[in-house]
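Customer escalation, tier 2.

The customer says the design service returned an amino acid string that "doesn't look like it belongs to this structure." They asked us to rerun it and document both sides in this ticket. The original structure tokens are below, unchanged.
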């Protein structure tokens, strides 16, 4: 995930994080050099002192439009690459190049299994790490949490054994998306038992352990009067079955919802108000799981605005953070830096290309590379 050698500060943590098969600190992992078709003349990753990951969505440009929220008709920002097909390996090449040359060394990829070939066949894949984010929400179907052993067998063949798959302390990483929403269908204890069963199966079958990250959907969490999430006893109980916990974002923190005619809800408030509460919200998460052997991974978001989704009836709620700028996002990165686990030195950005919610660090017509420039500064500073 770093090239030209990691800096001295944070190098030990990076060496642990970048283990993959042979434990090499080159982005290809496994002691392997990048593929012959990709050379330093094509892509030149910068040396980083901490790991910045970004959520990456492969459904943009899907001709089947299986995820209407991720259709270009809903985009509120304009990609510098134009309206691309994220399942085109040449597009993914350009994403990876832009990412690693600005300090983004991990992509957390939403698992749309029919839309991963572009990523997996990218000639620049050896330069970056990726982890899959999986929603286990098909109760009674394959992706039922209680079917986790079979899901993990499938994911091993798809991703876990690939040299560029992200590992922490030698363990394959995967993210359970919206993990707290699963407790609306089964109890935290039942979900925990399913996670344990999956972990035990994988260990027995393959002789190695997993690193399971639970991603919290904060929209479904208890909140205080300022819309700062509260970790309940159920949240803490669920986290105890995981290796790490991370919030996807805190998009409504510091704002107030109001109901409008027709039953919708709207929150339009300054980005500054949200940013001001990210440290407190992060502290609540980290403090709640401290002492339980669970790591905390902080998050940062460049903005929020689902105007078109709301207008087109795909969302029943409108959430807009006004006045977001790249410089303010850079301030947010530094504000949550203190909550990065010292053994992981990992932060996740929401998101690389969430164009329908205006959460984008990928270069755009509106901002150029300014958001990535802020990440580069953050990832390389001592």
């Amino acid at each position: 995930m770093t090239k030209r050698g990691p800096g001295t500060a944070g190098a030990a943590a990076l060496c642990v994080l970048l283990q993959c098969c042979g434990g090499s600190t080159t982005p290809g992992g496994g002691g392997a050099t990048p593929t012959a078709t990709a050379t330093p003349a094509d892509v030149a990753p910068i040396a980083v002192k901490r790991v910045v990951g970004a959520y990456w969505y492969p459904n943009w440009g899907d001709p089947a439009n299986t995820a209407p929220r991720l259709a270009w008709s809903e985009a509120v920002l304009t990609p510098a690459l134009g309206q691309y097909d994220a399942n085109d390996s040449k597009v993914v090449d350009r994403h990876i190049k832009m990412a690693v040359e600005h300090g983004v060394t991990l992509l957390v990829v939403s698992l749309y299994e029919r839309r991963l070939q572009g990523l997996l066949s990218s000639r620049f894949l050896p330069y970056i790490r990726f982890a899959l984010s999986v929603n286990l929400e098909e109760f009674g179907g394959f992706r039922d949490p209680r079917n986790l052993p079979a899901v993990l067998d499938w994911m091993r063949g798809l991703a876990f054994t690939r040299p560029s798959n992200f590992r922490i302390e030698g363990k394959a990483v995967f993210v359970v998306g919206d993990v707290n929403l699963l407790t609306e269908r089964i109890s935290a204890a039942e979900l925990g038992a399913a996670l344990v069963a999956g972990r035990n199966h994988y260990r027995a079958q393959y002789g190695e352990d997993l690193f399971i990250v639970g991603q919290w959907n904060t929209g479904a969490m208890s909140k205080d009067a300022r819309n700062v999430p509260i970790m309940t006893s159920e949240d803490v109980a669920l986290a105890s079955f995981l290796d790490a916990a991370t919030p996807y974002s805190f998009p409504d923190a510091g704002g107030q919802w109001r109901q409008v005619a027709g039953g919708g809800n709207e929150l339009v408030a300054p980005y500054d108000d949200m940013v001001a509460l990210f440290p407190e919200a992060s502290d609540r998460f980290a403090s709640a799981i401290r002492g339980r052997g669970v790591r905390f991974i902080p998050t940062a978001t460049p903005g929020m605005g689902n105007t078109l989704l709301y207008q087109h009836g795909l969302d029943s709620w409108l959430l807009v953070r006004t006045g977001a700028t790249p410089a303010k996002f850079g301030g947010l990165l530094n504000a949550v830096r203190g909550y990065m686990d010292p053994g992981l030195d990992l932060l996740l950005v929401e998101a690389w290309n969430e164009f329908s919610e205006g959460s984008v660090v990928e270069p755009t017509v509106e901002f150029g590379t300014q958001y990535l420039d802020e990440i580069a500064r953050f990832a390389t500073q001592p």
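Tier 2 assessment: The sequence is consistent with the input. Residues 1-36 have pLDDT under 50 and may be disordered. Residues 11-380 form a domain with the TIM Barrel fold (CATH 3.20.20.80). Sent an explanation to the customer and offered a walkthrough call.
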